[in-house]
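Our preliminary data section would be incomplete without showing what the modeling component actually yields. Below, a chain of 217 amino acids is followed by its predicted structure, encoded as tokens that our downstream tools consume directly.
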Amino acid sequence: MSAFRYQKQAPAADLDLLPPDRARRRIEPLSQRMARHEVVDAQFVTVRETSRPASPSAGASSAATLTPDPSLFFRSLVERIEARLQRLSDVGFSLLVAIAFVSIFSIAGQVFFGKAEHPELAAKPLDFTHVNLTPQDRNGMRVLLLNAIVENRTGRTVTLPKLRADLVLDGQVIASTYIEPPADSLEGGESRGIVTRLQHPGGKMPEVRLSFEEAGA
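Predicted structure:
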């Protein structure tokens, strides 16, 4: 039988398991850290670039490039017109030529005769229009109501003479009456109306023929 030996062990030394205190970092405010650095105000200076004067030759060349040539424009216009005329048919080309001739002659007539008065208008500036003769009974008498318009066909003022009304039956004058004009004169293009009553000669209904007292009217 083996003997059990008990050996008393020496007590273990106490161990400090806590880590040593670390030096805590001192957290400084941002304002204090910025205060340590010196701030210097910066000044900015704008440097302007000196412009170089444009040379006269460059300006002249650019102006010559931008200015269109009238001869080239006219030549291109003529070529376009010629190309369109060649596309027309024979009938269309003839119609275009006829319209051109009529336009030219009408413009020439307005230029030459527009300023000068036509000989027919110079000889007879006054004329009658809308002549109407209506039979009526007035106080038991048969009368003829005459309505007409006298107008000035010229562009100048014309003196208005007395009017003459001839009653014609079967080609013969059976009665004549003078009528006072509605105005002393008529301006260019002006017209006046005439209303008067004539005595009925009896028998058939006659026709009326109006004229002016002066032969030159």
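Residues 70-113 form one domain. The longest strand covers residues 126-138. Preliminary results of this kind motivate Aim 1 of the renewal.
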